[in-house]
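Thread: quick sanity check before group meeting

JM: Hey all, I'm pulling together slides for Thursday and realized we never actually wrote out the predicted structure for the chain we discussed last week. Dropping the sequence here so it's in one place. If anyone has concerns about the input, flag it before I start.
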Amino acid sequence: MTAETMPTIEDVRTKLVVELEQTDSPEQILKRPELKQLYSQISSLPAEERAEFGQGVNQLKSELEQLVAARLAAAKTAAKPAIDVTAPTDVNAPLPQPLPTSQGSLHPVTTELRKVTDIFMRMGFDVVESRLIDDDYHVFGSLNFPDDHPARDDYDTFMTTDGLIAPPHTSTMQNRVLKEYKSRLENDGPISVVVPGRVFRNEDLDARHEHTFTQVEGVYVGRGVTVGNLIATLTTLLEEYYGQKLETRITPFYFPFTEPSFEFSLSCPFCSEGCSVCSYEGWIELLGCGMIHPNVLREAGIDSEEFTGFAWGFGVERLVMMKHNIEDIRHFHSSKLNFLEQF
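JM (edit): ok, ran it. Output follows.
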């Protein structure tokens, strides 16, 4: 190719800009042989012309890259119309098309909660969803909380100005569940229900505590129910969930709605002698449990002399942390893709 037949930078610019406006694959413009040919010409030019010519070719490539990026951005915007985040109330306004579910995935807490409820269903439990707002009677009164219990104070519990409460536990459903299913007792069957739901607490945040988390309440009532049944039920759940034999322990505790009450713990998987996650104790308290207090049974219209039962409540996030060696509960609400994409 002679100097007379070599394409100029301006010739290539004019040709590629026209093609860019017409093509459906704008990114291919940057791979066109005309652009590569300009670079190959540099070595054949006189030494005093190479720098200026090379600078011109680089400027053309930068210009084309910006035009290609603009075309791609415009195509993306056109393919996905903007969603009005102000949520217009006009019933005649067209609704935006939702993004396909294939572009997302389930949150790890949702995935693990489904596994937990599936285990309970196979054990014969019904599943009843909890509430996100409730009243003082169901949150505290029906559960044998004294009037002066500190959990009633608004510095421990989130309350609205009109007296409604963001439940600090899924036990808020316990009175309803006992009343709804007590007819089973008359037919010599047990009340066996689990209640998953989101709960809210005015907590100091750290590696083990969040102000909002997911809890699963469990209730079992029948004739002759004992602490041994409670321990066997929880151990069966946890060993099925973790797929292995587990080292567990129960220690006495206090809850207004159970008597006796216990804390149910697993050995810490993050350390051998103690770490900040387990407060250097070697054990992580996984859930609270106990035998349902007679006052709670009587409040639901159940004869506490004839029937006994047990209840428990555990945070799903803490189960997932133990399962996947997650060291900080705050990761679940961080929205960090590098964490969520692991699941």
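AS: nice. DSSP finds eleven helices and seven strands in the chain. The chain has a mean pLDDT of 85.
JM: adding both to the slides.
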